[in-house]
Amino acid sequence: MTDDRLLEVRDLQVEFSTRDGVVRALNGVSYGVDAGETLAVLGESGSGKSVTAQAIMGILDMPPGRITGGEILFQGRDLLRLGAEERRRLRGPRMAMIFQDALSSLNPVLSVGFQLGEMFRVHRGASRKEAKERAVELMDRVRIPAARQRVNDYPHEFSGGMRQRIMIAMALALEPDLIIADEPTTALDVTVQAQVMELLADLQREYRMGLILITHDLGVVADTADRIAVMYAGRIVENAPVKELYAAPAHPYTKGLLDSIPRLDQKGGQLYAISGLPPNLLHVPDGCPFHPRCPRVRDRCRTDLPPLYAVSEQAADGAAEATGEQAEAAAADAAHDDVARVPDIGERSSACHYWKETVDDARRA
Amino acid sequence: MGRYVIRRLLQMIPVFIGATFLIFLMVYALGDPVTGLFGDRAPDAATAARLRAEFNLDKPVWLQYLLYMGNIFTGDFGTAFNGRPVTELLAQAIPISFRLMLVAIVFEIVLGIVLGVVTGLRRGRAADTSVLMATLVVIAIPTFVLGTTLQFFLGVELGWVNPAVSPAAPFDELIVPGIILALVSLAYVTRLTRTSIVENARADYVRTAVAKGLPRRRVTTRHLLRNSLIPVVTYLGADIGTLMAGAIVTERIFNIQGVGYQLYEGILRQNSPTVVGFVVVLVLIFLVANLLVDLLYAVLDPRIRYA
């Protein structure tokens, strides 16, 4: 663990009690963010991206949700051991969250100035007038034109992009160390998406904040993220620096995601889609949860749940020289060797028994 | 806003005319007030004719209505058959009913909203289920049963209050009748607030408020309650009129000489000017209360713009 490590989620497990039974939304999620770093968390709907974020923020609905295990280390302290009041004091000054739909996430009956100023009034004890002044400054910061005239306007009087800027401003208000952005651009026009992402990236650099960017948009990720954590069925399936992951994914699911991006240089062909649907979390398949949809599924995948294997360049290079049966055997052996070594949170890792082949195939292609 | 108010005031005119004309028609055109005045005895023809002429009863209904309305706008609500001017009855009854309504509405607002918020925040727990059961019981039992029971226990058995309210009807004597009057609406306010709270508690902006690190209390009062009260305020506004006019049973039980009591007397004695006079004033109260609710709505919810 580096000194810069801001947040470390370790083996986080969350369950939801529903009428149909217990849904295991998170089955041991681990990831970390350093100060000033952007971690993109990628995955389909229901893969547990938002649940992890809510657990970190401490805004998970409990009940029906329940954190059954794991640790969330934030600046060295385990958040799950803190009292409700201590955690509340962290929200805002230390960590903040940006939500997907700014229209419904802002209170419709309170002016944006009030909602922005509330941060200063509650956490800093500012007066009503001071708070409004700071709200105007914040709105200027996120480049909302005519901030002073608009500070008393209500959320519905702003455009989608402007509303999301207000959400960003609210998260930035107290200059937190960590910001979690839960699909911040999904609800926006494509043209506005780029602007908002750029703003977020600029501000993150300026304040040297850790940023967790939850998204299912791989295009957004490539430009802004330093590392990527790919989630599937409540687990991390791959964790890698962004360049390495794009160059050679080490999990068939990641490969599927990358292949399903429309590309300008391959016009005319049919767009790749991962077959099947994400698993029902009430009945997660045995073995690797991705096996029913996996193009390289083998017998072992149906029975053995793959742990996170450390993905090392050397091992992958070595395997690249072997071919066919040999490669498979080598990969399996190497994988078995690695089982003993739990990869560090900052290290590249993949939850696939056959990650080596996957990487090699990607390299060859 | 100003233009909206003017438009609403103009819209009130046809509503007012329509409502009063219907009441006028029902009271004057159906049944004979003069016969009613004499009760079981048949009036002699000459007296009846003189009375008909005096009260304009010999003219066509529409003309009677016009004459009556003309009088009303000059402040003359006509004379009741017992000789007292209707305005005098109104001046006596309306403040009493108003006080009773105030007591009832304060109960509704304070108790109803508090219970609604508490049950809404503890959905599915014991407190929630028991309050919901209690509201069902209150809604199911007729007012006269609850009213007379409470009157008997508090007034007669325990002797804590006077079972009948004195003609002056000061506030302290109106507390028990006020509770009785408020009970049914109180149950509805509780349920309405509860539903609204439950619905809004899952709203995204409440989650945002929590994520901002606001204390629980502030999240509830500033963010959750503010939004949840919009439908409740609408209900309360409309209820003002109902409480003023609809207190007939309560006012009979506790012998309160308010609007309901006078209306009841008026109907019983076929006292047409009394009935129509009171109804006209009640229509006005309803109209003004509704206008106030609509204006308050815009204050509570900035998304509603009146242009």
UniProtKB/TrEMBL annotation, chain A:
BP GO terms, sorted: peptide transport
InterPro entries named in the record: AAA+_ATPase, ABC_Ni/Peptide_Import, ABC_transporter-like_ATP-bd, ABC_transporter-like_CS, Oligopep_ABC_C, P-loop_NTPase
The UniProt record lists the keyword Flavoprotein: no
Domain ABC transporter intervals: 9-258
Keywords: ATP-binding, Cell membrane, Membrane, Nucleotide-binding, Transport
SMART domains, alphabetized: AAA (SM00382)
Subcellular location: Cell membrane
Family matches, as Pfam families: ABC_tran (PF00005), oligo_HPY (PF08352)
Main location: membrane
Family indicated by similarity: Belongs to the ABC transporter superfamily.
Record-linked PANTHER family: DIPEPTIDE TRANSPORT ATP-BINDING PROTEIN DPPD, OLIGOPEPTIDE TRANSPORT ATP-BINDING PROTEIN APPD
Protein name: ABC transporter ATP-binding protein
UniProt source species: Streptomyces lonarensis
UniProtKB/TrEMBL annotation, chain B:
Domain called ABC transmembrane type-1: residue spans: 94-297
GO biological process per UniProt: transmembrane transport
UniProt entry tagged with the keyword Lipid metabolism: no
A Pfam family this chain is assigned to: BPD_transp_1_N
InterPro entries: BPD_transp_1_N (IPR045621), MetI-like (IPR000515), MetI-like_sf (IPR035906)
Swiss-Prot/TrEMBL keywords: Cell membrane, Membrane, Transmembrane, Transmembrane helix, Transport
Major localization class: membrane
Keyword Glycoprotein: no
Subcellular location: Cell membrane
SUPFAM superfamilies membership: MetI-like
Signal peptide: none
Membrane spanning residue stretches: 12-31, 96-119, 131-154, 174-192, 232-254, 274-300
Record family assignment: Belongs to the binding-protein-dependent transport system permease family.
Protein name in UniProt: ABC transporter permease
